[in-house]
Amino acid sequence: MSDFNPLKEQESIVSVTDRVVGATIGAAVSAVHFFGDKAAFVGAEEKVTLVDPDGSATPVEVAFGAILCSASDGKRIVMGCDDGKVVALDRDGAVSTFATDAKRRWIDNVALHPDGAVAWSAGKTAFVQAPKGELKFFDVPTTVGGLAFAPKGLRLGIAHYNGVTLWFPNMAGSAEVLEWQGSHLGVTFSPDNKFLVTAMHEPALHGWRLADGKHMRMTGYPARVRSIGWTAGGKGLATSGADTVIVWPFTTKDGPMGKEPAMLAPLKAKVTMVACHPKQDILACGYSDGTILMVRLVDGAEILVRANKGEPVTALAWNARGSLLAFADQNGDAGLLAV
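Now predict its structure.
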C-alpha cells in the first residue's frame, strides 16, 4: 500500500499517472476481474491474461473462439463462449468446462451467486446450476438480454424484450414478470434488494421498486448505457452513456424518483466504463478517448489516472479490498494502480 488516499484533501496531487504499472495484453480486452491482488484481463478472443501488481503477465488459453461475457466472485471467472461452452478459470490458472449447450448456441450472458450457483443464457433460455442440485432452466419470450442474481435468496433476474422475469429456480411456478416496453439488456439488483434496474437498448435506464413494482424512469442520456455500478453501500447507481458520470440516488425508499442525478467528471468524451470503490465513496471512470479518472463522490474532486491515449477504455475494476485499480483499453493497453 502506498500513502496515497483518494479521500484525503491532497490538492497537490492532481495526477497519479506516474504510479501506474503498465501491462500489454496485445489484444482487445472486454473485462477485468481480480483474484486477490492479481488482475485477470478477459480478452475478446481465446485468452485471459493474469497480471501481477508488478506488471508481469501470464496468458492463459481458455477458449477456442470468442469470449462473449464473463463474471467473477473472486474465486473463479466464469465465461460464456461462442462455441456453446461455459468455461471457468480459477485463481491457480486452471481452466475447466462448466457446461456445454446441447445446440452449441452462443452463451450470451453469465452470472454468479455467492453460494456458488452459476447462471447462463443461450437464446431465449436461462439456465441455473447450483453447487448441489440438478440443472434448472427457464424460457422467456425473447432472447435473454442480461442476467443477475438477487443479493438475497436464489432468485434470478432475466432481462428480455418488454421487461424482466424474476425466477426462483427451486420454486416451480415462481416466475414473475416486471413489464416495461422496449429491449432490456443489462440488469442489476440494488445491494439492499429493494430495487431492480435495467439498461435499455435506447439511451435510458428503467427500474422497479420490488416491494410494489413501482416504475422508475431514468432518461436523458445521449448514448446507450453500457456500464453501471453501485456505489459503496448501494447509495447510488453510477452509469456511463454521457460525457459525465451520471449517479442516480438510491438513499430513500423512492430511489431516484423525483430526484436529479449527480453529474460528475465532465469531459469532451463519452464515459465508457465506471467502477465504484468497494468501500469508499469514490469511483473510477474511463472515457472514449482513453482518459481514466478517479472521482470523489462527495465533492466531485478528480485525480488523473491515465491521460487520453485515443482508444476507448473497455475494462475497469477494483480489487475486493479497494487497494488496486485495473484498466485496459480497446487495443489491450492495460495498467494497474496501487492506491
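Confidence is low (pLDDT under 50) at residues 1-13.
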